[in-house]
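This part of the workshop introduces the protein records we will be handling. Getting from the letters to the C-alpha coordinates is the skill we practise here. An example says more than a description, so a record of this kind follows:
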Amino acid sequence: MFTNHPGWYLQLDSEVIECRSNEISQLLINLLNNAHDAVKATKELSQRWVKLKVSSIDGVVRFRVEDGGPGVPERYRDKLFTSSFTTKSLAEGTGFGLPICRKIAEKHNGRIFLESTSPVTSFVLEIPARQPTIQKAS
Protein backbone atom coordinates (compact mmCIF):
# COMPACT_ATOMS: atom_id res chain seq x y z
CA MET A 1 0.00 0.00 0.00
CA PHE A 2 2.83 2.42 0.80
CA THR A 3 6.36 2.51 -0.53
CA ASN A 4 9.47 4.60 -0.34
CA HIS A 5 11.11 5.11 -3.69
CA PRO A 6 14.64 6.51 -3.90
CA GLY A 7 13.84 8.26 -7.20
CA TRP A 8 11.04 10.50 -5.90
CA TYR A 9 12.76 13.78 -5.15
CA LEU A 10 12.42 17.47 -5.79
CA GLN A 11 15.51 19.67 -5.36
CA LEU A 12 15.13 23.26 -4.14
CA ASP A 13 18.47 24.97 -3.52
CA SER A 14 20.05 22.87 -0.79
CA GLU A 15 16.81 21.20 0.33
CA VAL A 16 15.96 17.80 -1.12
CA ILE A 17 12.29 16.94 -0.83
CA GLU A 18 11.20 13.33 -1.02
CA CYS A 19 8.05 13.41 -3.11
CA ARG A 20 6.44 12.51 -6.35
CA SER A 21 7.70 15.60 -8.13
CA ASN A 22 5.22 15.27 -11.00
CA GLU A 23 2.32 15.32 -8.52
CA ILE A 24 3.70 18.27 -6.54
CA SER A 25 4.30 20.07 -9.84
CA GLN A 26 0.69 19.36 -10.88
CA LEU A 27 -0.53 20.76 -7.56
CA LEU A 28 1.59 23.93 -7.84
CA ILE A 29 0.59 24.49 -11.48
CA ASN A 30 -3.07 24.26 -10.46
CA LEU A 31 -2.56 26.83 -7.70
CA LEU A 32 -0.61 29.13 -10.03
CA ASN A 33 -3.28 28.83 -12.74
CA ASN A 34 -5.99 29.65 -10.20
CA ALA A 35 -4.00 32.67 -9.04
CA HIS A 36 -3.51 33.79 -12.65
CA ASP A 37 -7.25 33.47 -13.28
CA ALA A 38 -7.94 35.54 -10.16
CA VAL A 39 -5.75 38.45 -11.22
CA LYS A 40 -6.28 38.52 -14.98
CA ALA A 41 -9.59 40.37 -14.71
CA THR A 42 -8.23 42.85 -12.18
CA LYS A 43 -8.32 46.33 -13.68
CA GLU A 44 -5.66 47.78 -11.39
CA LEU A 45 -2.24 46.88 -12.84
CA SER A 46 -0.57 47.07 -9.44
CA GLN A 47 -2.76 44.14 -8.30
CA ARG A 48 -1.87 41.89 -11.24
CA TRP A 49 0.78 39.77 -9.61
CA VAL A 50 1.33 36.18 -8.51
CA LYS A 51 4.10 34.98 -6.18
CA LEU A 52 5.39 31.52 -5.31
CA LYS A 53 7.36 31.43 -2.07
CA VAL A 54 9.16 28.36 -0.75
CA SER A 55 10.54 27.92 2.74
CA SER A 56 11.62 25.07 4.97
CA ILE A 57 11.41 24.95 8.75
CA ASP A 58 12.01 21.93 10.98
CA GLY A 59 11.77 19.44 8.13
CA VAL A 60 8.53 20.83 6.70
CA VAL A 61 8.61 22.47 3.28
CA ARG A 62 6.07 25.24 2.75
CA PHE A 63 4.99 26.36 -0.72
CA ARG A 64 2.91 29.54 -0.68
CA VAL A 65 1.07 30.84 -3.76
CA GLU A 66 -0.09 34.43 -3.30
CA ASP A 67 -1.91 36.75 -5.64
CA GLY A 68 -3.22 40.28 -5.79
CA GLY A 69 -6.68 39.27 -6.93
CA PRO A 70 -9.95 40.13 -5.22
CA GLY A 71 -9.65 37.31 -2.67
CA VAL A 72 -11.93 34.42 -1.82
CA PRO A 73 -15.31 35.50 -0.44
CA GLU A 74 -15.97 34.20 3.06
CA ARG A 75 -19.07 32.29 1.88
CA TYR A 76 -16.92 30.10 -0.41
CA ARG A 77 -14.03 29.28 1.91
CA ASP A 78 -15.53 26.13 3.44
CA LYS A 79 -16.40 24.77 -0.01
CA LEU A 80 -13.08 25.34 -1.83
CA PHE A 81 -11.84 21.77 -1.50
CA THR A 82 -15.24 20.18 -2.22
CA SER A 83 -15.44 18.19 -5.43
CA SER A 84 -17.36 19.94 -8.24
CA PHE A 85 -17.44 23.30 -6.44
CA THR A 86 -16.16 26.17 -8.57
CA THR A 87 -16.41 29.93 -8.59
CA LYS A 88 -15.56 29.95 -12.30
CA SER A 89 -17.85 29.59 -15.28
CA LEU A 90 -18.32 26.10 -16.70
CA ALA A 91 -16.04 27.02 -19.60
CA GLU A 92 -13.22 27.95 -17.19
CA GLY A 93 -13.34 25.44 -14.36
CA THR A 94 -14.63 22.04 -13.31
CA GLY A 95 -14.27 22.24 -9.56
CA PHE A 96 -11.89 19.29 -9.42
CA GLY A 97 -8.56 21.12 -9.18
CA LEU A 98 -8.43 21.91 -5.46
CA PRO A 99 -9.88 18.55 -4.35
CA ILE A 100 -7.17 16.82 -6.41
CA CYS A 101 -4.59 19.12 -4.82
CA ARG A 102 -5.81 18.10 -1.38
CA LYS A 103 -5.50 14.39 -2.25
CA ILE A 104 -1.95 14.93 -3.50
CA ALA A 105 -1.02 16.83 -0.34
CA GLU A 106 -2.48 14.12 1.87
CA LYS A 107 -0.68 11.37 -0.08
CA HIS A 108 2.52 13.23 0.77
CA ASN A 109 1.64 13.37 4.47
CA GLY A 110 0.96 17.07 4.15
CA ARG A 111 -1.83 19.58 3.96
CA ILE A 112 -3.10 22.38 1.75
CA PHE A 113 -5.17 25.31 2.91
CA LEU A 114 -6.25 28.87 2.26
CA GLU A 115 -4.50 31.04 4.82
CA SER A 116 -7.32 33.14 6.18
CA THR A 117 -5.10 35.54 8.15
CA SER A 118 -3.11 36.68 5.13
CA PRO A 119 -3.83 40.19 3.79
CA VAL A 120 -3.68 38.75 0.23
CA THR A 121 -5.03 35.52 -1.24
CA SER A 122 -2.59 32.86 -0.08
CA PHE A 123 -2.83 29.11 -0.64
CA VAL A 124 -0.29 27.07 1.31
CA LEU A 125 1.04 23.55 0.77
CA GLU A 126 3.04 22.00 3.61
CA ILE A 127 4.76 18.65 3.19
CA PRO A 128 7.51 16.95 5.16
CA ALA A 129 10.86 17.03 3.37
CA ARG A 130 11.43 13.40 4.34
CA GLN A 131 8.55 11.03 3.68
CA PRO A 132 8.10 8.15 6.07
CA THR A 133 6.00 6.54 3.33
CA ILE A 134 4.56 7.69 0.03
CA GLN A 135 1.30 6.16 -1.09
CA LYS A 136 1.37 4.44 -4.46
CA ALA A 137 -0.41 6.20 -7.29
CA SER A 138 -4.01 5.10 -7.64
Observations:
- Strands lie at 2-3, 9-12, 15-18, 50-57, 60-67, 111-114, 121-128, 134-135.
- The CA atoms of residues 29 and 35 lie 10 Å apart.
- The chain has one domain: 7-133.
- The helical segments are 21-40, 97-107.
